[in-house]
Amino acid sequence: MTEHATARTAGSGPSAEHPDAQNPEVDSDDNRRQVLYWRLLARLFDGEEQASLESSSLAVVEDIGLPSALLDPQASVDSVVQRHPELAAEFDGLMVPGPDDDGARDRAAEVRRAALVSKVLLNVFASGSGTVTAGQLTRWQSDAGWLERALGCRPGELRGGRAGAKAAGRGAGPAGAGGPGTTPDLSRLIPAIGPELGAIEADLVKRMHLREVLADPTLAAQLTPSMSLIEQLLRDKSNLSGVALANAKSLIRRFVDEVAEVLRTQVEKATVGALDRSIPPKRVFRNLDLDRTIWKNLTNWSPEDERLYVDRLYYRHTARKTTPQRLIVVVDQSGSMLDSMVNCTVLASIFAGLPKVDVHLIAYDTRAIDLTPWVHDPFETLLRTNLGGGNDGPVAMAMARPKITEPRNTVMVWISDFYEFNRSQPLFEGIEAVHRSGVKFIPVGSVTSSGRQEVNPWFRERFKALGTPVVSGHISKLVHELKTFLA
Questions:
Q1: In whole angstroms, how far apart are CA 438 and each of 15, 398, 410?
Q2: Cβ–Cβ contacts within 10 Å for residue 99, how many?
Q3: CA 296 to CA 317: how far, in whole Å?
Q4: Rounded to the nearest 5°, which phi and psi values hold at 130?
């Protein structure tokens, strides 16, 4: 296929099967574009260079007046733009669909775009393997910024997960890349590409000396907080000091603040408590019940004046009953549950800020630690965690049970995969006793944004028989369960 494409690119006669067979120039442009995209796919899925595709692509790039550096995997987009400043404007919005005048295609422009798109995609997604240096990470971050600019976003916008509807809306073009010359539908691509960029960056950080990055304030400031990065920071925090420790704390706080912003919105979507009709409604305009006011005063309608005379206004009740509630969150802090640990500390701090909700937080592996004194500050809570490898639920239960003073007004959330260290039966017996005392017990397999979870089948079946099935791991489901109980 490559030889065929190369031959046709070199100017072989038109094929009768090609829709533009009567136009050799169009046929040549289409095949040039295909050569560049075949090279892109080959390099993405196989790091080995294919000589025929490389030589064909070089001929295409030079023929259309672009620098050969576009095909050099070691050259960053920054370096290409520095040598050829005129290309900067072409990279900006490169992958954003533009106006299509009368449906006409500029095939020569498509070939040029294919060369530029291939460069930025390969530099970002062909991240290689092995040890990564600080310089390589910096170069990748710069190239990722150019990809974001090509998608119509600001550098860092997608990696931080903050690409707004405006950015996505700019990509509302042809759906997918199904036909020649079409551009991907960015309204669907942008929300999906951010996590992928974050995952690649986290992998690069994992492959380099993290302490080297943290010791450089400029380089550390360019890191995008992600769950995998936070895990590394929490595991290594005892070995950090000075500037490196300060930068690590800054990254953790940035991540915690971003998670808190999302969770706080979910918590605030529903109100807490039932309406308290024993309290007279406040007589303010925002509480005015117009429908009821009109209905109750219909007898005062004057046909002669064509007016409704109102002698009484009716207002809605807004005050809500709130009973003091105790929320006890027990979370497994073994390494496999880090995602849950971060989300739970943030979620606990949000509920701790609600009126008349007394929140207690316990983390455990083979030992248990009471984090309640720091529950209002998830950042400080995380710094006090110690990610371990074992599970000893009965130790955590021994710490949690004395906190139960009024079972009927207590909810206990237990987040774990429930793979215990040879002590499954004692933990379940403790949970069963708590549940039968009147405590609302909520077992959760995990608390993640994806909802993926893995739970010990032995526990899953017994929780189901107990009438307390394991809650889906998606964090929004746990928020709903807690809001229902506290209402």
A1: 79, 18, 8
A2: 5
A3: 17
A4: 90, -175
b vs e for 192-224, b when ≥16 Cβ sit within 10 Å of the residue's Cβ?
Answer: ebbeebbebbbebbebbebeebbbeeebbebbb
Q: Which residue has the higher pLDDT, 320 or 82?
A: 82
CA distance 177 to 111: 15
Identify the CA nearest to 116 among candidates 137, 143, 139.
143
Rounded Cα distance, 345 and 351, in Å: 10
For the beta carbon of residue 401, count every other beta carbon within 10 angstroms: 15
Q: Around Cβ 191, how many Cβ atoms within 10 Å?
A: 15
The model's confidence at residue 402, banded by pLDDT at 50, 70 and 90, is: very high
Query: Pick from 110, 4, 13: which is nearest to 64 by CA?
Result: 110
Q: Using CA atoms, how far apart are residues 411 and 482, in angstroms rounded to an integer?
A: 8
User: Is residue 333 classed exposed, middle or buried when 0-12, 13-18 and 19+ CB atoms within 10 A define those classes?
Assistant: buried
Residues of the chain with CATH 3.40.50.410: 325-486
d(CA 246, CA 16): 67
Closest CA to 7 of 55, 42, 43: 55
Distance (Å, whole) CA 346 – CA 338: 13
Using the structure block, give the residue that is written with the tokens 């050969």: 68
Q: At what angle do helices 2-9 and 24-45 cross, to 10 degrees?
A: 140
Place of tokens 């296929």: 1
Superfamily of domain 325-486: von Willebrand factor, type A domain (3.40.50.410)
Rounded Cα distance, 114 and 81, in Å: 17
The pTM of this model reads 0.50
- Choose the most confident range, by mean pLDDT, from 159-173, 352-366, 437-451: 352-366
